[in-house]
Queue: 2 jobs
Job 1
Amino acid sequence: MTYREIKTVGVVGTGLIGASWAAFFLARGFRVVATDPAPGAQARLRDFIGKAWPALNRLGATAETAPPEPVFADSLEDCVLQADFIQESGPERADIKREAYVKMDALAAPDVILASSTSGLRPSQLQQGCHHPGRILVGHPFNPPHIVPLVEVVGGAATDPAALDRAESFYKSLGKITIRVRRELTGHVSNRLQAALWREAYHLVASGVVTASEVDAAIAHGPGLRWALMGPMLLGELGGGEGGLRHFLDHIGPLIERIWAEQGQTELTGEVKKTLVDSTNAEMAGLDTEAMLQERDALLVDLINAKAQARNLP
């Protein structure tokens, strides 16, 4: 199968992730057709794009001082029929997504790729009941997609390798950093790595070892600073000095294994959830969420632009 040239991107679902995708595609010069059945979705999308535009300008994605208007389709059918590529970001529920993919598959021409932003579902789940499953795949971004460059490209049991190649080349052409996930896993790769950290972070807070603010400080002002520059494999290589990763594993490996053996098994019971929420609410006291988001995005842009100047970081 040869997949068509992409001029119009269909954005199905305009919540937090879908709206961010829509802003990103507009900033890259594509015509965007969006749809979402939620009341007030069109106004919220327009508001999000306006707020996202300064960051997109700083990332060099556009020379436009004001964002172009996306087309807001009244129905899924109207959106899909106009699109050369679909980025679906609907609710994270398998039943809702499967129903949507059966409808989109019936409407879209066979040379239109259907990509899902799903955080955890496997693409084979989305292909069930579809007549053209070869063009269905996962293109999982990291929040917020209009700023953070990572996209995980994942194929299902029936995905056409050419569709994976085309989707990956499309994302890369927009400046995204892609990884090809070679086997379907719940949560793909990045969320599984996050989940490993969350497991221990939640255990430490729930068991009273530290507060939410302290566990956040332990990451944000320690290893998180290094993780923003390179991943755990290269950090191990550098951490081993002249001996590299081999020395690191030989030297620190026994400690790592002792820590693994002691790490907590935490269930998210009602009591545990309350402990986590109460501790996090205490951390948020006096903080302005909207201002925090603005500062986060501004610093992310600074970091991305700074990393782009580095010649020896991957």
Job 2
Amino acid sequence: MRATVIHAPRDLRVEEVPDPVVQQPTDVVLRVLRACVCGSDLWAYRGESARQPGQRIGHEFLGVVEEVGSGVGGFSVGDLAVAPFVWSDGTCTYCAEGLTTSCPRGGFWGSVGSDGGQGEAVRVPFADGTLVKLPAAAASDDRLLTALLALSDVLGTGHHAALGAGVRPGSTVAVVGDGAVGLCGVMAAQRLGAERIIALGRHPARTDIARAFGATDVVAERGDAALAAVRELTRGEGAHGVIEAVGTEQSMRTALGIVRDGGSIGYVGVPHGSGTGVDLGVMFDRNIALRGGVAPVRTYIPELLPEVLDGTIDPSPVFDLTVGLDGVPGGYKAMDERTALKVLVKP
């Protein structure tokens, strides 16, 4: 089959690789119908996170079950299913507590020795604990299938950030980051009842989506000007909750600068220098809580899935460029140059 592999920074190739097969009784092989490129994939693309030459890449996908291991009880050949970006066994104490990303037998798609999602098929370990079945009819509904793909990462990650930020009915929430996760954070805040949602972003195409997802205000300024603008919108107090969806030093400093005393920051931006933006003294003095991390999206999918299916929430607008498998390298380039928000892949 064909799949995307990374050989060096900015050197992605679509190559022939061995077909995936069932290796353990708990495996299934999934034929990929939809995949996508994540903003966190760009750190490998830029050489800021290490990869071995020839390593697979991609961690967001859904598809049809093609082969089933003898120990799998919940799936049959022909089932449509979505995969969260981490596989998990569904039986350990962490999985029982909902922290599937800490499963000792879990792992990330595209890690050394595993299949990546940006290919024609994937071997899925621990299928019963990892995959979530989707209605078969969704396979023929292009818009719905695209919306369901967001369950693999960005929708659940935005939800995780909103929970970390302590979003509650009537609260004021600010969102730092206008990428797909930040926009899904806006949607999550609106879904959880926030009365005011301030989106920080300066790209009209993205802030238009933010408004459609529930943002009541947009702040285009950066740095000290952004802090002043949010403070002005909140009577000088700041937001009850801040969603930090970037992961840089500047984005974390901004989050700390715009959160209200006694408020919370929900952080889900993959850290790349953001630790230097955290001042524990400031957090201590102002009673600021910091919660977040790798989102256990497998835990959130059952809650979010019905609302995607009935159209209550529709994250599909975050996908603004569609490519075939051969177009994946160009899709990375488009996202790296910020001419695309999030690239949908149709193998």
